[in-house]
């Protein structure tokens, strides 16, 4: 039963992945990619990594929705409804993807996979967290602060009008009136 | 308590009764809403409470509207998506002491599904190739940007307190105080998040009357029934999920556990329906600031408090 499910999900993931390049609509490509990722997430759940699987679905679907925002933001009103090819520079792209595929499959077949030592952890989520975070907690905390600071700084630089314009440099001006920039 | 992998759920056979109860609750919520609307416009509340049934019958026989250059496949995905997501959310809610699907990561499952609503609502707005519907879809994404992160941290608080992402574990950790009592901020933010993904009350701008229905505008007949019904089902799912997360699951005197779950779900649902008429619809761009400047820090502080309480009490809860 699990085997059947695993293989059907794998087929769905690959077919949806191929669909991304076959369809002529940006929205269909986006959602085909989302389906592919959801199938990958479900396979992860099947192999016992429930947490990773659920998070994969969560992150990827959110990413696709955000992609839809950018799609319209950068490309005008509704380009997604206009048919357009989903491939660019076909020949080079095919050459690169075939090369990467051959390289990776050669790797899969050639690497001497180690046999399993010990038994699977009782709670893979906790173990994974320990393994990822254990010795690197400080680094992770530092990196996350830097990342958040980067995002905030990026927004502040990109924002046409922000809180400081509406509420003054010290944020003391008590007026959200549109005339002072409160509305749009 | 460590989570062990493995499935201890009721099994797929219980999906059918779950669907029936969810639809009944959704109809009851729509009935209450109809009664309130009728009373506020001077008609008898009783006739209003039957209005959802009349609406269902009307939509079932109404013709489908087809717009020019729409994307029929993706439109159907958007329409069927809402009820489907709601039902998938309900599968991890413990009915009595066990859910239909006892995932070790039930909380993340719910979170992933409420993100799928982003994709689904946007699609329902985008696919008909109509301006107002498209604007509705984008309004939803704008609101989602504001409510989603606070909602995520609101969901994290009970999970941290229970030390488990499994819903039965979260219920078991509420032997003493319900989480709603000592995490009121997380509970409030969670309820706002439910209003968000059900496109409800203050966060209903994507389907607002100022857009002639927004996401709903071009959808008619059975499709519209699925969209509106899916919205009520999402409300039911959100209310039902609050029960194991914040309201002690099936715990309570006299009645059997499963009945307590239904009663508490109905209570949260009624509160959401009643609040809808008390609160104004928020402008998405204004709410974005509220979400990031007020709700997100509030949810984080709540999480900090919970983490400190759990940490100082020995972390064995």
UniProtKB/TrEMBL annotation, chain A:
Keyword Cell membrane: yes
Location of the protein in the cell: Cell membrane
GO CC annotations on file: plasma membrane
Segments crossing the lipid bilayer: 6-23, 30-48, 54-72, 92-113, 137-159
Topology of the protein relative to the lipid bilayer: Multi-pass membrane protein
GO MF: NADH dehydrogenase (ubiquinone) activity; quinone binding
Catalytic activity of the protein: a quinone + NADH + 5 H(+)(in) = a quinol + NAD(+) + 4 H(+)(out)
Family of the protein in this entry: Belongs to the complex I subunit 6 family.
The protein, known as: NADH-quinone oxidoreductase subunit J
Lineage of the species this protein comes from: Bacteria, Bacillati, Actinomycetota, Actinomycetes, Nakamurellales
UniProtKB/TrEMBL annotation, chain B:
Molecular-function GO terms, alphabetical: NADH dehydrogenase activity
Annotated GO CC locations: plasma membrane
Membrane topology classification: Multi-pass membrane protein
Location of this chain's protein in the cell: Cell membrane; Membrane
Record field: transmembrane: 12-36, 73-95, 107-128, 140-165, 177-200, 232-251, 257-275, 287-310
Top-level taxon in the UniProt lineage: Bacteria
Keywords for the protein's UniProt record, in alphabetical order: Membrane, NAD, Transmembrane, Transmembrane helix
GO biological process: aerobic respiration
Pfam families: NADHdh (PF00146)
Coiled-coil intervals: none
Main subcellular location: membrane
Family: Belongs to the complex I subunit 1 family.
The protein's name in its UniProt record: NADH-quinone oxidoreductase subunit H
Organism: Nakamurella flavida
